[in-house]
Every structure is written in C-alpha cells, then in structure tokens.
Write a structure and sequence with these properties.
The protein is an alpha/beta fold. Helices cover about 35% and strands about 10% of the residues.
Length: about 270
C-alpha cells in the first residue's frame, strides 16, 4: 500500500530527513491529531451526537460505568462504529511504508485501529483500544459478536443508544470497554513497551499529540534526557516545541509521506 495523492512539493526539513534516514530504530509517538485527519474528532473539539450531549471526561470514568453501564457501553460502541467507518490516512500509510526499510515502533494514545489497518504493528496502545473489551473483574478479553454495533441498511446508530454490556464467559462479570478511563493508571505492560521502544530508538518522532496528557507526555522527555533526538511534527505549538531537537509545523498526512519520499529518494542515489 502506498500513500495516495501526495503533494507534488512538500519541503522536508533537512535535519528531519537526515535524522530519520540515519536511524535504524525509529520510535513514533502518535496522538489525536493523527486520527483527526481520518475524520475522527478529538475530545477537545466541538462534537456531535453523544460527544455533544455528554462530557467525555465524565462519561469516560469508573463512576459513570458504575452509575449507567448501558450508556457507557453504548457510547463506546458508537465510537467504535465511527472508527470503523474511518480510513487510514496518508500519514498512517507512510509509517507502514517506513517500516519496510527500518525498525519502526509505534506507541499511540489513540484508541482506534487505523495504524493496524494501514499495515503497521503497534508496540503499545497507551490508552487502550476500542476493539479490546475485557472483563471488569478477571480481565479476560471479550471476543463476542455483541461487542459490535450492527447498523442496518447503512443507517447511523442512534446517539441515544443504550446497550446492556455482555457478560464474561469465565466469571459472569460485566464486560467493560478496553479503554483507560480518566483517573485510571496506564497498563503496566503497555507503558513498559512504550518506554523500551523510546529508549531503544535512534530518533523519536512525536506526531499529532498535544503533549498535555501525562504520563504519555513524559516519553519525549525521557528520550531527550537520554540524549535521543526528538522530532515534533505538529501544526500547532505544544509544550514540547521549545524542547524538541527539531520542530516541523505540518500535519501527519502531509509530512509523513513527504518524509518517506525524501528518505527513499536519498537511498536511491548512486
């Protein structure tokens, strides 16, 4: 799969191209801006449907689950439906292409599966996944078909949707979304893989993340403290911008295909 409709002329900063071209191991930290270009809105943007009716920081919590698990389960099914309808953008595809010539470890804060559908292997979903529900008691992964929304005749699921969550086949407890809710710690195994990927990298790309959410925002700092170059790719200024080794003001879907093209062109030179 190749990135489509690339801009004819995208200026890739020389320092960015050289750092990535010379790196055998690349860690890529991605955030909501990466998925936004596929049409998936972020928490901080104006929303529709359940996003408009409910504060995500209130519904994405253990308290909300305790008070109305049918609403929370339905809300996450609705989000999963939205994610399924989205396609990986050229940035996702470019990262998969980059991995054909070097080691690329993707650590994402996004809960969709766009990286995987573009052909990448994700080292860690720091905030969980819409497609990995699990038992709230024993943690057993749930693979039942009722984890999905069924939409008939192309109709949109109702933003009022309430769906009773299924039960675990092992212990009969409720199955919950496989998401890290506000106030919950990150999974220890995912965090360990993320730190290992960053510390093993020759260069770290930070793409489309606000760098406001900790502990995820700690990862670029860890790289810099270890002397590993950090490249920020983001159209907006973030708290990381003044510390990054190189900052490139561009979006993921524009910058990453241009970067891969520049690296491939350099490799093809005699």
């Amino acid at each position: 799969m190749q990135p489509s409709d690339r801009p004819a002329e995208v200026a890739v900063p020389h320092a960015v191209a050289e750092l990535v071209r010379s790196g055998a191991d690349i860690a890529v930290l991605t955030g909501a801006g990466m998925s936004r270009e596929s049409g998936i809105s972020t928490f901080r943007e104006a929303q529709t449907g359940l996003w408009e009716r409910f504060d995500p920081e209130e519904i994405a919590s253990v308290d909300a689950w305790s008070q109305d698990n049918a609403l929370v389960w339905g809300w996450y099914l609705w989000r999963a439906h939205v994610a399924r309808r989205a396609d990986p953008n050229d940035g996702h595809i470019a990262l998969a292409e980059l991995a054909s010539s070097r080691s690329v470890s993707i650590v994402t804060q996004n809960v969709d599966d766009l990286h995987e559908r573009a052909g990448s292997r994700v080292a860690a979903h720091l905030h969980g996944s819409l497609f990995a529900p699990r038992c709230e008691h024993c943690g057993t992964p749930y693979l039942g078909s009722d984890a999905e929304i069924r939409v008939r005749d192309g109709e949109e699921p109702s933003p009022e949707l309430r769906v009773d969550p299924p039960t675990c086949m092992h212990c009969l407890s409720l199955v919950r979304p496989g998401i890290v809710w506000f106030g919950e710690p990150l999974p220890v195994d995912a965090w360990g893989r993320a730190e290992a990927a960053v510390l093993a990298a020759d260069v770290v790309l930070v793409v489309g993340t606000s760098n406001l959410v900790y502990p995820a925002a700690r990862l670029p700092e860890t790289a810099l403290e270890a002397g590993i170059p950090v490249i920020e790719i983001n159209p907006e200024v973030t708290p990381l911008s003044r510390h990054a080794s190189v900052t490139w003001r561009a979006t993921a879907a524009t910058a990453l295909p241009a970067l891969v093209a520049a690296i491939n062109a350099g490799a093809a030179r005699p």
